[in-house]
Records
---
Amino acid sequence: MSTGNVERILNKYAEKIRPEHPGLPQKLYPHMLRRTRACGLYQNGVELELVSRILGHTSTQTTRIYASLSIEMLKEAMENNSVDVSETAEWLDDEEALARIFGIR
């Protein structure tokens, strides 16, 4: 089946469901499905290298265009790497420890 036929079928069915889904783009094309799936895989935690292999890319550089970060991914990264402010640094009042940490002594 040609790309043109797939595009016609996509747009035919898109017209039928557009009343319930007004945000659907006016013109759909097959590559949108591939791109959407690739972005979804990456945003759901599949490593970029694996997404690249699934897509048949010879280089992960080609796949990087699909590696858009979702707000959820950014939020999760911040939550997983936040500093616990309830902990008190042991060296705060110890000038000797501070000097050693910064290589002064």
---
Amino acid sequence: MNELVLFTAKLKTDGFNDLLLNFQSHSLSEQLQINSIARRAAIKNNYKPLGYPSLTFLQAHDHDLLEDTVGAVTEICKYGGICVLPSFDPAQLAALITLRLNIYTDPQKPIQVEPKLYAVGEPKPDSPVFVTTNFSLTYFIVSGEIENSGISAWLLVPECEGMSVLTAWAAGKFSGVTIGKFANDIKLDDQVTNREIVIPGFVSQISGELEENMPGWKVHVGPQDAADLESFIKARLN
């Protein structure tokens, strides 16, 4: 590391600013230690020569995918910049990308999407309108099933603090009143001419309240499971 520091300082003096640090190690534990020391020095001590992202080439472990994955996870979680894998495996990459996308999220705060009216496909003003919560997993599942059905539609997503349908309903965040208020706030009536909305089957009890808070609208109770949306759409909306 001392030699790398001297070399980095010289390159900086020579006018090179976009650098990658390739730390050499003999084991995963040593690599973790080096990464930790370098990052601590750069951040806590403001040590400029180690303030560049790292580039790590993982060594293959005799085709041991688990060992390779452990090495990549260590790099992702502990200060690695760019991690080059020894082989390509779709299942491994899916797991690593999922980890990378979630490593900086707060586990106590649900991942949520922006509350608004979403277009699924290329909907027209008279296209069907669905409603769900802004919990990201729920949103992506529901929008995906609508898209798989082959139709274009509108998906109304009110503010539910990132809760799932039943959780939001139990907390009073997903009711006929809150949905109706959100639809009014975004001027839903001005954006669509269709006056029929589909609610999740698990909250069928809010249908009457929603019709009271969305005058002129007809409420359809959809399936409880998003996987049944395609058959529901073909049977009820086509």
---
Amino acid sequence: SYQIAVEKFPKFRRAWKNMSLIYVRQGRLEEALPGLTRVIELGGSDAITYGLLGYAYSSVENHISAESAYRMAILLDPKTLDWKMGLARSLFKQERYAEAASLCGQLIENHPDRSDLWLLQANAYIGLNQPVKAAEIYELVNHLGQATVASLNMLGDIYINEELYDMAVESYIGALEKDPEKSTDRTIRSAKVLSARGAYEETRKLVETVEGLRKDQLSEDQRKDLLKLKARLAVADGSDEEEVQVLQQIVELDPLDGEALILLGQHSSRTGDMEKAEFYYERAANIEKFEADAKVRHAQLLVKSGKYDEALPLLRRAQQVKPRDNVQEYLEQVERVSKNR
């Protein structure tokens, strides 16, 4: 084998090179590095060796060495696009975004059909905090029919930040349709962002699309997330009854979902069913992660009913578990009212 050959004859350059090429073909790039370096030390300074050395260095995240190797490859062979692409990627990985964008621009002039060049340039513009420029490129790639799941999701994120919510949804749906299985979690996260921005119609469209494409393949956590989004939409629509039904479905799926229990408690409080509200808050308080919030809500309910002395221990416990300035102020107010009665 070549390994035996280089051990016996350490200056046998062709054996070093062939052994390195085998490693590269097998994807064992880190193992290829010593051999490629040795070939160059022994005078084998050709473009392919330098180019593969750049590729191997990139695979181990040594982007400065990768840049040097790619530059040497380009010097010896200025026509091969792969070396220039490698250089652009190594500049990008070093966060030298302006240089990466500029080099991509030069390469695009000669290779306008290469979507990987366009996408790398768009990502560099994101790094330069020029999202609108990036969006133009992502749209162009989309029109070329070469958009990726990542580029469509990134385009959606840009549109959200620009408050173009309907366009954001179209991008997210495009990503979901390209790869429903891998994109579901990402799409649900995007729906949560839209909901938090008050873009309820767009949230609804995204939720319905996820359910339509993935209904039978959703995990329990994904179903819960979608139900919570539906509950928020029901609140936004003023549909109390629908909100309760959705929240109850969540609790059926997961009896330890403290967020849903607290929301059910708030709903019961709004509708004047204090006993049921207390029941939900007490259940939520038994879940460690939600104890503090549940006890504060419960205390607020008691204060509303004038039961200050019963509210105080709950607020003190909430502060023990999760100290917060606003809760401390509220606790002190309740203490003052309780003393003055």
